[in-house]
Structure formats: C-alpha cells, structure tokens
Amino acid sequence: MKLSVNIISDTSGYATEKIVKVSLSQFNVESITNIYPDVRDIDSLKDILNFIIETCDNFIIYHSFQDSRMNVYINDFCELNNITYVDITGYSIRTISKKLDLEPKYAFSEESLYETDRFKTLNSLDFAIKYDDGKDFRSLKACDIAIIGVSRSSKTPLSIYMASKGYKVCNIPILLNTSLPDELFEIDSKKIFGLTIDKNILKSFREERLKSLGLSGKSQYSDIRAIQKELDYAKEIMEDLDCVMIDVTYKSIEETSDIIINHINSRKGEKND
C-alpha cells in the first residue's frame, strides 16, 4: 500500500521535506508527500489533521513548529488517535535538553517568530528557491505573487529579489504550445504578473545564454521567428488570465519589483476603502 507522508509546518516545510526524502530513499516503497506550509493557528491545524484522517489510509505525519502550543496540540492529537508521527523540533529540543541537563524555556514569542523582517525574508527566499521555474504548482495557492513569462525574461532574478523583500513568489515558465497548470487559473488573477520583452533583446539574451553553455548561437531557442511565436502565445495566455503585464525590456529588476509592489499596495488600499 502506498505510504502517504504528510508534512505540517509553520514555515515552508522545505527542510523537513529534505529529511523525508533522505529517509524514504532507504526503502523500496511507493509514497506520496503532501506539504501543508505556513500553519500558524490551532484552528487551521485541526482542519488539516481532520482532512488527513479522512483522506489518507496508510500515512505518517512529520511536523515542525516553533510555537510550543502547536507542538503540544499536534503531539496530543496524534497520541489520542494512534497516529504515527515525527516531531522534528520537539526531538531536537529534547536532545539538547538531555545533553545540557537543562529544561527548555518554551518561551516563544509569536511576534518574534513570524513577524520579524529576518524571519519573513528567510522564509520567502526558501519559498522562491523551492518553487522556482514551475518546479511545484502546489505553491500557487500559498504565494503572494505569481510571475509568468517566456524563458530569459528575468523571472528567476525578479523572484529572488522580491523574496528578499519578504514576498512569497513563485514563477511559471510559458512554453510554446504547452498548457499552464490549472492551479494558475484558480488563484486571484491580481496575484499574477506577466513579463513581456522586446523580441530582439530577448534574442540577444538567449544567444548569450547558449554561448555560456558552449552551444551554437543558432538554434530554435534563439530564432527570431520562433521567439515571436512564443511572445504571441505568452500574450494570449496573459490576456486569458487577465493579469497585469509588464514590459521589462529596458527595466531593471528593481524597477519591475517596484511596479509590482505598487500594484499590490494599491489593491490593499482598495480593500481598506
């Protein structure tokens, strides 16, 4: 029977997922991993735990929380319901406590955990790297910003730059004649920003990319007619999504980021009116 591994965390769950992958690699077993990131209140945790019980048969829970209240709740829940679980943070704290022969303080400040600029930045960078270039479409519902565009339109550097400002950003490549994930059409289109670029500038970027890889500058990837088809297809997609389109041809990453942030802030103002 397939093993369902469920990761619940108050951050992205990326570090725990790596631990799970290493552990599963030791066994010849079919498995699926579900990640529930950014869980920061008991009510949300209850809903997730009940959902797992209702939808999974053969499962295990890995969890990592910096708030001791969340840790205590999920451990008690698993014990009462005879659920196999791994408490990543709790195990680490208990090990250090035993080694030092000291009791842990368990004095976590919710503000210091989740609201500091440093925590937000690290968590957002973790998110952007994990979900770069359409690696995992599950990120779309959790992201603050979804950036779409053709190859070499500055999606990745823009995502990393905006993550350094505390935004959770994922980017999705638009490939000619390739459908985008359904999840992209299910989120608020105001979260989505499409990057456009002049075809000749894009051609030069792609030729430089090919040269850096030791490849010939002449290929379908850098052919001007193929590029025009890609850009036309990308524009159709962006119009279907009804997202904001930004011409990045002569813009720096910082300028494009400012445009996106201004759009986000203006929407917040509309909601508050």
Automatic annotation (TrEMBL):
Q: Which residues form a coiled coil?
A: none
Q: For this protein, what is any one GO molecular function term? A: protein serine/threonine kinase activity
Instruction: Provide this UniProt record's keywords sorted from A to Z.
Output: Kinase, Nucleotide-binding, Serine/threonine-protein kinase, Transferase
- Which Pfam families does the record associate with it? Kinase-PPPase
The reply on keyword Nucleotide-binding is yes
Q: What is this protein called?
A: Pyruvate, phosphate dikinase regulatory protein
